[in-house]
Amino acid sequence: MTDALLAIGTRKGLFLARSTGGGPFEVEPIQFATIGVPSVAIDVRGGTPRILAGIEYGHFGPSVMYSDDLGVSWQEASRPPVAFPDKTGATLVRVWQIQPSPVEPGVVWAGAEPAALFRSEDGGVTYTLVEGLWEHPHRERWQPGGGGLCLHTIVPHPSDPRIMGVAVSAAGFYRTTDGGLSWEAANRGIRVPFLPEGQQFPEFGQCVHKVGLHPSRPDRLYLQHHFGVYRSDDFGGDWTDVGSSLPSDFGFPVAVHPARPDTVYVLPLQADLDRTPVGHHLRVYRSDDGGGSWRPFGRGLPEPPVYVGVLRDAMTASEAGVFFGTRDGEVYGSRDDGESWSLVVRHLPDVLTVRAAVL
Fold first, then answer.
1. Spatial separation of the C-alpha atoms in residues 112 and 169, rounded to whole Å
2. Of 41, 61, 252, 258, which is most buried by a Cβ count within 10 Å?
């Protein structure tokens, strides 16, 4: 039996929950009360876990805090940890994603709004802009999604530091094979149904909601799009629709099982204009064959009707279990691969991000 940590970023604060020896999660008192926490990471690469939190200070602006004692105390760099160079003329709005590198010690990536990628080489304390992506010729034609022009997903290759993918709303999926010096749009095969016939597969301009991979099969990616669920078997070179058998292919999160690369989770919502669970029945759909077929699981989840939504970063699958948080402040977890669910905590603010790790 193992100890685990669950980090829950909300519209008004961060909540940490701990499980000892596989027991129930005990939720600790709120941290950063009244402050939005749109991104969080649990970095367990070293001997001591480091928690990283992207926070919104309101009047004082966004920042990144870190804790090396499981949230007992927090530190911040002496200068703004994520900041645009003056020459860009840009101002940081939000840190949407924090992602430790799986292969480079000390390297942590941050995704920001306006859409940009930042790199840290000191464990997430300070960051520098990845100029190769910022200067991409497509940038001037990128359009913001409903949440703004944001780089919300970072997908580093688990063994090759030169390879990485990012998702930008609403520009699409971009990838690099030279460590970030150059980037290419990688959206071939993704359909945008509202565009005219003959123009429905644009090079970019895609509203990608989330992308995930499994470290044992890194060329395979799963993507939740605004209008579909897709899989790529060549790290974004081509995409294939795998959502046609779902009751709805609209949703936000996608999460890959930590031990099984063919097992992936999504949480379908009714439609773009009705962002509630399909049939107002809250269920997580799981595929065990790489998206070829899907099954719903809802044992332990609230009985219908349910009208909550789940945001793109509010679901995670890790060795500690599968977890998701709702926009009405409830967090559910599963320790049997999604077969059944139990309530971790309720009455939180709007859940923005959920991360879990075995300590």
1. 11
2. 41
The pTM of the full predicted model, rounded to 2 decimals, is 0.97
Tens digit of each residue's pLDDT (9 = 90 or more) over 288-318: 999 999 999 999 999 999 999 999 999 999 9
pLDDT at position 59: 81
* Half-sphere exposure for 153 (CA within 13 Å, toward CB): 34
Half-sphere exposure of 114 (CA within 13 A, CB side): 14
Query: What are the structure tokens assigned to 102, written together?
Result: 């799986």
314-351 pLDDT, tens per residue? 999 999 999 999 999 999 999 999 999 999 999 999 99
And the tokens for 301?
Answer: 């989840």
Q: Is the dihedral of CA 49, 213, 208, 129 positive or negative?
A: positive
Structure tokens at 121: 């080489």
Task: Give the closest residue to 4 by CA, choosing from 42, 54, 45, 46.
Answer: 42
Say which amino acid occupies 261: P
Mean pLDDT, residues 184-191 taken together: 98
- Name the pairing type of β-strands 264-266 and 254-256: antiparallel
Cα distance between residue 67 and residue 57, in whole Å:
17
User: CB burial class (10 A; 0-12, 13-18, 19+) of residue 54?
Assistant: buried
Query: SS3 of 308, please?
Result: coil
Looking at residue 1, its pLDDT comes to 60
Nearest to residue 343, comparing CAs of 309, 297, 288, 300? 300
**Spatial separation of the C-alpha atoms in residues 306 and 308, rounded to whole Å:** 6
To which residue do tokens 């099954």 refer? 295
| Residue 57 confidence (pLDDT) | 87
CA-to-CA distance for 121 and 18, rounded, in angstroms?
28
